[in-house]
Amino acid sequence: MASFQPAHPQPFTLAEAQQLDVSTIVAEISRLENSLAHLASSQAELAAFLADDEDDDLRAAHTENAGVIASQEERIAMLRHVLEGKVGAESLGHYGIAPAGETRTQSGGDYIDVDPPAADPAAAADDDAGLHL
Fold it and tell me: How far apart are CA 29 and CA 23, in angstroms?
């Protein structure tokens, strides 16, 4: 797997991300994309206020949010890189991950539960004959 050199401080390294299981990676990407949606909304509100009246505190919050957004986008890219290495780029859609360059909201998709419910033991007992098509 190619190296990944983050431009922003991250809470974990690429090597640590590679140790995560697929469901954890998918859940973290989902959490980060949700956070980014809220940050984008906040940025739009701050920009609207700043267009009417310059305020040092609002300007500082807007600037800080921009850094957080860049860091979280980079973290998503790192996690997507790891996930592609584990499942292949062609399988990302199975996990509800939008193609590279798109966010979940741009693709219109929702994340799916990657931990399917436990099989019904009664149904499993009836399925001793193997795969039925």
Answer: 10
**Spatial separation of the C-alpha atoms in residues 88 and 4, rounded to whole Å:** 17
| pLDDT, tens digit, 9 for 90 and up, residues 19-74 | 999 999 999 999 999 999 999 999 999 999 999 999 999 999 999 999 999 999 99
Threshold 0.85, pTM exceeds = no
